[in-house]
Amino acid sequence: MSNQLSRRLALLDDDQHRSILGQGLRGIERETLRVDPRGNLAATMHPVALGSALTHPQITTDYAEALLEFITPAENDIATTLNQLDAIHRFAYRHMGDEMLWSESMPCELPAEEDIQIAWYGKSNIGMLKHVYRRGLALRYGKAMQCIAGIHYNYSLPEKFWQLLLASDGIPEERRRPLRDFQSEGYIATIRNFRRYSWLLMYLFGASPALSKGFLRGRQADLETLSEDTLFLPYATSLRMSDLGYQNAAQSGLTPHENSLESYVTTLMDAVNRPYPPYQELGTKKNGEWIQLSTNVLQIENEYYSTIRPKRVIRTGERPVQALCRRGVQYIEVRCLDVDPFEPVGISVETGRFLDAFLLFCALDESPPIDSIESQVHARNFARTVKEGRKPGLTLTRHGEEVLLQDWARELVERIRPIAALLDEQHNEAGVHAASLAVQEAKIANPALTPSARVLEEVRALGSSAAFGLRQSELHAAYFRESPLMPAEQAMFAEMAAAALAEQARIEQTDTGSFDDFVAAYNSSTLCGD
Asked: 3-state SS of 347-414?
């Protein structure tokens, strides 16, 4: 254990400070495709009864019209967060007719590209901006990519936590950095440690070792054939997070610059403002109609597909990077988790407990800067794990030496153990974080217990990835339909949906100016300022 980690653990274990960790927040964004009873992509529009995808705070769409996104409020305990997520699912199922939610990260059998509808947000300027951005994504990555689903885990530590660490540094108060800067640096350091160790999450929670052949759209890939309609890799954990996911030549030159918030923001803003010749050849319009927001490396900063992001809640009319510049980092968004096809809401409370301990470990432990060579090593460790993480004898690179994945994984769990114990001390339910660690240890000792191995076993038995996805989707649909929401909960969600529709109507009625001018103003607002 590092000196910094042991010192900070002792500080948080003090009676007067122990309650601080219970004040952190976590929220979940779950993406999921709507499919018909046969497991084909739904061709219907976003159900009106769910409200407006533009303005609803908890139910929206991601890239495709059929790709729902459920967003929970931020809560102090992951169990409460998952109860919220469960309720959103039950409300959605009440208004989806015979459609179901797809149970996996990798898509169901997809129709032709022209038959995949890009998400629609109405005729307002902001709604059209969101739609045209997705047109640009389709142009740059293909529509099949817009049907991949994941779990995003939003995590924050309370301001009192950062105040305590800042005060414990031993620096006189008059010479201390502003709390905002210290907190941002703390989150960026957390992200660096996440880069070092996130391969462990892919081993433990990756759940996409196979995919439907049609997803590739004729592209060549180094995959093996499992059946007529299914491709796989025998030791893969997460093909979603491999080079088959959101990748292209334009982004290949972007590497994480997370040694400071300033360098991270600078890198993104350079990409948003730097022309990319192949996109310039396409232009922003075709036959007078917008096809992408810009011809730069990134249309907007959110197009950078990172496994983790520093975040700050944005204000009306503000861009994500402006919020970071003006008010610093507020929370982190973990983006590499596959949907767990064995869980109706896509993630278990046990997984959340481990993530809380893992992320707190990343925040407390020493986190030196990462140079470009080390960054490549971390990326290679991650890539090895997603494609062959369960391979017997697989090694990863640590400090210039090859070490067995399982040995390093066991060492990491031991380093996380005192953090899990600390979290359990301030938690109402005894031993829940330690119990989650025990489950992960069992997966490390026996790869057959990992979600990816379990998925592959089921796919082999059924002979098809699509058949497995459909079966799980049917099981989950029955689970939600058998136990609808209580009337008061149903009324609350219905009211929220109606309010979202009214807000979209208000935006459309009060809109002024042309869309061309709106895009020009948006694209010119990329610099940080007050």
From this structure: CCHHHHHHHHHHHHHHHHCCCCCCCHHHHHHHHHHHHHHHHHCCCCCCEEEECCEEEEHHHHHHHHHH
